[in-house]
Amino acid sequence: MDAIFIIQQTILFTIPLMIVGLGGVFSERSGIINLALDGEMVIGAFAGAIVAKLVIASNPALANAQWLFLVCLLISAAAGALFSLLLSFAAINLKADQTIEGTALNMIAPAIVCMIGLLSFNSERIFSGANFVILKSSYSPSFQQAFDGPMGWFFDLFFNNIYISTYIIVILYVLLSVWLYKSKIGTHLRACGEHPQAAASVGINVYRMRYLGATISGALAGIGGFAYITTCAATTAESSVGGLGFLALAIMIFGNWNPLFIALGAVFFGFLKCLGVLSSQISWISAANLPSYFYNIIPYAVVILVLILTRSKSGCPKAEGIPYEKGER
Amino acid sequence: MSEAKENKKPLYRFVRTPFARSTGASLISILIGILCGFLIMLICASFANADPGEGFALLLAGPFSSKRYAASQFGTMLFYTGPLILTGLSVAVAYKTGLFNIGAPGQFLMGTLGSLLVALSINTTGNRGLGILVWLLAILVGIVLGILWALIPGALKAFFGINEVITCIMTNWIAANIVTWVFSARPDLMNTGAGKTGYLIQPSVTGNYTPTLGLDRLFHSGTYNSYLDMGLILAVLLAVLMWFILNKTTLGYSMKACGYNKEAARYAGMKHRFYIMVAMGIAGGLAALAGSLYYLNPNIELQWQSVYQELPSYGFDGIPAAFLANCNPIGVIFAALFIRYLSASGTFLQKAGYNKYFADLIIAVIVYLSGFARFFRERIERTQGIRDKLGVSYFGYIGWKCKRFGAKFQGCFSSKKQKEETTVTKPSDSQSEEGGKK
């Protein structure tokens, strides 16, 4: 039982949750309720897995190629972004009810995955055969020696049994959060979620900003989806991502639409989520002999409890879910 | 102003009612959705070995895809419709009160849990009268559990202002784990037959199943009875009841008022907290009844072992059923029937080289298009407005449209051409007419 194990278990869930949660922020801050996060994750995971499967089928030696991982992440981001255009078009141009559209996209995504999977690969699951984990044994012998040195725990934590997606997502998360709050476009985008008419009055193109927000949201959800199946589901895409998109939505509300709190919330939730695994390894807890279902319930129950205790002022964007109409006051 | 025109014909007046307009909008989205489905089939036929013509025919035939078992398939489709109506109602009633009940899967599961625990624990085989009493008790226990479960997000929303979406999602997963947990501790309820792992026994084993009223034999193909029981009748009655409550009672009026504008409702002296709780309670009861009725059918058995990994699709399917019907309780009946009709073709699509997910995809596309209802409604309104103004038939309208398009097209080449022609007949009084009626 060591700290490194706990951290790496926590990260498994934290990373996809936080990046998808940030996707939710981008969309909702621009004024569009993105219930379709789950569907966008499914589509992203699906696109990435198909590309990985096709490439690996032509050259099995690439099953652990990190550049392929990067390409797959990009593809899944593009797929998620494209898919989210369906939502943006309906919500922005046709002023449709965003809750309905989000629900519809959540139904379309698994149907597409299973349909194409059955038609082309004869299976509802797409097993890509990729394994992008980086282990200690993959480094050069001289670097491997560092693991046994006095700073061994450091190398163990950051270089052994890791996925590059973790680092990419953390960097992306920080950059995009800062961009959303400090840049000109980011500020414009947030203004469109608070008061689009006021934003339009100073010359901001609300439609464009909302498209931007929803598209970034889709791309991030796509990345999150592929990162999730790589780290938690043996790079196998299927019709669901275990409700993670909805969880990310919940974490986003939990984090009060604020990237910093969302990251903290995701870490918190990720830690609670791995309690079940940890409990079997700590003798006095496993002595209580509680079933795994108990530990499964804990994260959800604790989140509700924390919500009751903290219930701060809502950071919910004021104009979220309301279609913008030109000339309306 | 246009009073004279209003008294033309019953049909003329009917197509201009808000009801006809929104129904028309729904029909347009269904038609476009089915066309999209055909298009998708054509595209897929290009890379898979499939026959789009046969596939489309099978899809439209729904439960009648199988000629030999058409009757029993149809009855079974009706059975599956019942719980869907109830979950759809659950979402619709909550949505009318301004709540998005994404917690229907959890409430569905709590209903299942309560009902099955009662119905499977008490053995009344041989005594049908007692069996029906226990069945009633099972349904009631399920409904009470569902109401209590839905009141958790309801109370959190009403008293702490916590977003109901997040608490519903959390309580869904808690419910799923509780169900598996409870049944894992009851090995006496498990079906230990050959090839069965993780299944509970059927309610018919203990004799406490839903009365079929002979409906299962009514729809039969040879020796195969359908699954239909009285659950469908209950669901339809409840839909009518919900329509009555929402549209004809003070309670429903206040609930809708809280949904439209919470602050205004409060200002008018309505206890919005109370109505949020009532709406969630009703929603929870309906979703729980769906679970109870589904699993108390003599032919259905619960796969309890995997419940905690994936939420039941019935709960989520209620959302499209409600939205397709524009959250109208009576509309939910037809929306649910339509969804089940399309998905009934499911497995038969394999005959044409497709699979059941095509039906799912088409339903999803239709739900996507149903979100455009407002756009379609406005289109219909505008078309009718222009027709009133010009005083022409529908074909006359098309001619006017073509002429206008031609003028626009010419305008592209000779930009100096005046735009008067195109703007002179813009309708504006259709809106004010609407407002006047209200």
Comma- or semicolon-separated keywords:
heterodimer, A: 329 residues, mainly alpha, two-stranded antiparallel ribbon, 1% strand, B: mainly alpha, ABC transporter involved in vitamin B12 uptake, BtuC, disordered C terminus
Brief description of this entry?
Chain A has helices at residues 3-29, 37-58, 66-93, 98-121, 141-146, 152-159, 164-182, 184-194, 196-201, 206-232, 244-254, 259-273, 275-279, 283-286, 292-310; strands spanning 126-127, 236-237.
Q: Which SSEs are present, and which pair or pack?
A:
The complex is a heterodimer of chains A (329) and B (438).
Chain A: H1 3-29, H2 37-58, H3 66-93, H4 98-121, E1 126-127, H5 141-146, H6 152-159, H7 164-182, H8 184-194, H9 196-201, H10 206-232, E2 236-237, H11 244-254, H12 259-273, H13 275-279, H14 283-286, H15 292-310
Antiparallel strand pairs in A: 1-2
Chain B: H1 3-6, H2 10-14, H3 18-45, H4 52-61, H5 70-96, H6 104-121, H7 128-160, H8 164-184, H9 203-206, H10 215-218, E1 220-221, E2 224-225, H11 231-248, H12 250-260, H13 262-267, H14 272-295, H15 313-324, H16 329-344, H17 357-370, H18 373-390, H19 394-413, H20 420-423, H21 429-437
Would you give an account of this structure?
The complex is a heterodimer of chains A (about 325) and B (about 450). Chain A has about 325 residues and is mainly alpha-helical. Chain A contains 15 helices and two strands. Chain A has a domain at about 15-240. Chain A has helices at about 5-30, 35-60, 65-95, 100-120, 140-145, 150-160, 165-180, 185-195, 195-200, 205-230, 245-255, 260-275, 275-280, 285, 290-310; strands at about 125, 235. In chain A, strands 1-2 form a two-stranded antiparallel sheet. The model of chain A has no long low-confidence stretch (mean pLDDT about 85). Chain B is an all-alpha fold and about 450 residues long. Chain B has a domain at about 50-355: ABC transporter involved in vitamin B12 uptake, BtuC (Orthogonal Bundle), CATH 1.10.3470. Chain B is about 70% helix and about 0% strand. A two-stranded antiparallel sheet of chain B has the order 1-2. Chain B is globular and about 85 Å long. The two termini of chain B are about 15 Å apart.
